[in-house]
Write a structure and sequence with these properties.
heterodimer, A: rod-shaped, B: alpha/beta, Spore Coat Polysaccharide Biosynthesis Protein SpsA, Chain A, seven-stranded mixed beta sheet, two-stranded parallel sheet
Chain lengths: 92, 237
């Protein structure tokens, strides 16, 4: 199953469960408080996911390592490489 | 071609206009492999660079011997062509522009033995991996794109677009048959398909030293094509 298919299945399952409970005809409705919480639930979840995404990306951005040592080491290596290659006869 | 001895590593280096960086990369690889006693060969695959990369590659082959350095002109995909000539049991794919800090591949071989992984992937996002030379905007795009990839593809690897990896030869061959994308989407597809086929993927932190970012800005075009590639993978894998 492709990821897209998985998402569609998951959304269909959750969507139909939500619709069955929240949009049920008057005879089969769950108690009022439950319905009140259930109706805006999809929007709440979307907003919650949005906040989670922002927080996660923000955190990861802030903790993105800067490899100063690696860069400095690379410069040294480049110098050593150039010298050695010149000695071995490479025309740069 | 029969493999020579256990644990030989073949490094595939596709190049385009890397006349300045190629000798440095090769020198660093030779030194690191020799220092750690790993049997190796370097396969340079150049696609008709106009800047003299081919002459440099030939000089390097003379200096180090064609047992260690092989220079090829590709017919078809560089990787597929290079793999035909690779005699190692493991294949390393990396960039030839000195952005990957070469000493780190030693960890690869070590991890390979520890965890017996089919693929060892370099990650910029975990451990003490990281980047050098990126401003805030570039980092944000990178993290944002990676987050989107994690949500949509759940790949089980933290860095899908980094291109410093070590593969078992037969694993890489299998993956190359199955993967259809090009460019860095191809890199992403390989990890996703590898997980689907049940291969194990280990990770090692790497440093990505970006020396060309100033010249090649990450433009809108690149972002659009990344999104297209991501959505294609989302819908087809």
């Amino acid at each position: 199953m492709t990821k897209l298919a998985q998402w569609l299945c998951g959304l269909a399952l959750l969507g139909s469960a939500w619709a069955a409970l929240a949009l049920a005809p008057p005879g089969l409705q769950p108690p009022a408080p439950l319905r009140q919480a259930l109706l805006p639930l999809p929007v709440y979840l979307l907003v919650a996911f949005g906040c989670y995404s922002l927080a996660t990306v923000g955190y990861r951005l802030a903790t993105f390592n800067d490899c100063e040592e690696a860069a400095a080491e690379l410069q040294e290596h480049i110098r050593a490489a150039r010298d050695d290659l010149r000695r071995r006869g490479l025309r740069l | 071609m029969a493999a020579r001895g256990p644990g030989r590593v073949s490094v595939l280096l596709p190049t385009y206009n890397e006349r300045d960086n190629l000798p440095l990369v090769v020198w660093l690889l030779v030194r690191t492999f020799s220092d750690s006693g790993i049997d190796f060969e370097i396969i340079i695959i150049d696609d008709g660079s106009p800047d003299g990369t081919q002459e440099v590659a030939q000089q390097l082959e003379k200096i180090y011997g064609s047992d260690k350095i092989l220079f090829l002109c590709p017919s078809g995909t560089a990787y597929i062509h290079g793999m035909k000539y690779a005699t190692g049991d493991f294949i390393v794919i990396m960039d030839a522009d000195l952005s990957h800090h070469v000493r780190l591949h030693v960890f690869y071989s070590a991890t390979q033995k520890e965890g017996n992984f089919d693929i060892v992937s370099g990650t910029r996002y975990k451990g003490n991996g990281g980047v050098y030379g990126w401003d805030l905007k570039r980092k944000l795009i990178s993290r944002g794109a990676n987050f989107l990839t994690q949500v949509l593809l759940r790949p089980g690897a933290s860095d899908l677009t980094g291109s410093f990896r070590l593969y078992r030869k037969e694993v890489l061959q299998k993956l190359m048959e199955k993967c259809v994308s090009k460019g860095y989407v191809f890199q992403m597809e390989m990890i996703v398909r590898a997980r689907q086929l049940g291969f194990t993927v280990g990770e090692v932190p790497i440093s990505f030293v970006d020396r060309v970012y100033g010249e090649s800005k990450l433009g809108g075009n690149e972002i659009v094509s990344f999104l297209k590639g991501l959505l294609t993978l989302f819908a087809t894998t």
